[in-house]
Amino acid sequence: CYQLSAWVIVKSRESDWLALIPQTSPAYIGAAMKVSTGFALRSASALSLIGTSRAFLPSKGYVQQHPAPSRPVGDGGDAAGSTSAVYSAPNGSGSSRGISFGSAGASLLNDAFANLSQSDQYDAVLTGLCAKILDGEQKTAAAAAPEDGEVANEQGISVEEAEKTARMAAMSPTERAFATLADPLSLLQEMNGRRVQASARSLSALIDAAATTESAAAMASAMSLGKANGGIRNYGSLQSFVTTIPTNPTARVVCPDGTSRTRDERLALLQDVPTDDRGTEVTAALATMAVLGFCVFVRVAGGLFGLDELQGPADLIIGTALTVGIVDNFYDAIKGGTSLLASTQKDRIPDAIKDANVGLPDKEDVPLGLGQGKITGTVVRGLTRLLSVDTERECQCEAAALFVAYALGIPCFAFRPNALEGAVLVFESTKQDSYSQNVDSLLSDAGVLKVLIWIMAPVAMESSRHAQLIASDPREGAGLLKRLRERAGSVSAEAVDVIEDLLGGDPEFAGANADALLRWAYAEADALLRDNRNMVEELTERLAGGAATVGDCTAVLEDW
């Protein structure tokens, strides 16, 4: 007999059953005298776990209904004669393998739940629904469908669960996302109708659950309901701070610094978007390392493999590589040293050489760009890309993209920015269906600019702190505009008109307009990040911890 608060778990020697009875029950004295063994529970919290977790329920066929001992009046329990699910060991086993109880545990659970406020009750249910999605219970029913209600596998997948999984597999990704979030979204909508505000914990769980669907439309619905509930306030709060690019070159705009300039005047002051040629850099680094590595191998171990005749060419290649490296990086020092030597030894220099004015050329005139550090710089940058692992730099770029997308109200803030994702979001935002009703249309000058600012945010963050771009890719912005132009015709005539107005219908001027739009978006992203530096740094620290979820990052952005 083991005491658990005011309850006692007993096991009868004669009938070999387990029961949960009140300590104050008259049956407690007789039962306690007959106890031979039992199960000890260390805390009262274990009681609720047993009552709610399927892991503690015995297998099918081992749960029987037995009359529960009567409880005294005023104890808050069920009336005498109520039934309790009692675990019975298989015949002849001689041992018990689990515990289960029905009305007694349910009454305690109901009493505990009734003592919570309405807000706490809704929060508990909403958090539980989201936890079910995060735990992947919607995906665990992937096994073959069972027959006639039998258990499909060891995880207890029934025919109904398998059929539900098959139906979800036949849905489109958006339909599947909304089917997964149906219960949490409906519950939050009911909370809004009853003016019950959700807690930060439940909203974080909802955002995490929405992120697992990988659907911008589902995330937009969750954020819209969260804003209506009052818990989400900063989503899309900085849209009004973005300066849109006018189509008229002489139109005046108010710049982030407060000055008024025309479009062309501001573009003249904006810096170019950083560029890199990472393909060439990586190729040069791999080729250099392969050639030098083979030459070193021939010099060290060539004799063991009959490669003695290659040692001469290997020495020549190694010597040439060293000479190129020295000249490319120290050409100014070499030229200055020779000039100094010539001035000190002027009397010994023949007159013919003096008259010819022989000397080293300027580094700008050296063939192949030698002397300017371009050759060795390309190899070094390629090696840096291949060998460097900078988690903090990656977290800075991810934090910048997350902050900008969240502040501008872009529902794909949980995803890594790329041109393909941005183009899909722009075109899908124009759909007129029940799933996209909470997604603001991005097929406009302002909408495309917002998506472009999101894509350029990692570039602006990394270029402000590092000389070389590694974690971000500046080519994604141009890739977005290219995809929008190529795919607009397959979407609608409206899409073609918007993209042509933005980039220009004449292909001759499309490149210049695209470059102006990229520089404008890069400047806007840089201004947003600089004005909110502390928030971005806090997000970076949260991401660098390695355990932050999208909901945790939202808590930072909302100051929960």
Descriptive report:
By secondary structure, this protein is mainly alpha-helical. The protein contains 22 helices and seven strands. It has helices at residues 27-33, 45-52, 103-114, 118-134, 159-169, 173-180, 182-193, 200-212, 216-229, 263-269, 278-301, 311-344, 351-356, 374-387, 391-407, 419-428, 445-463, 475-487, 493-503, 507-531, 533-544, 550-558; strands at 2-4, 7-11, 18-22, 63-67, 83-87, 252-254, 260-262. The strands form three sheets. Strands 1-2-3 form a three-stranded antiparallel β-sheet, with helices on one face. It has a two-stranded antiparallel ribbon with strand order 4-5. Strands 6-7 form a two-stranded antiparallel ribbon. α11 packs across α14 and α17 (445-463) crosses α20. The radius of gyration is 36 Å and the shape is elongated. Residues 1-101 and 140-152 have low confidence and may be disordered.
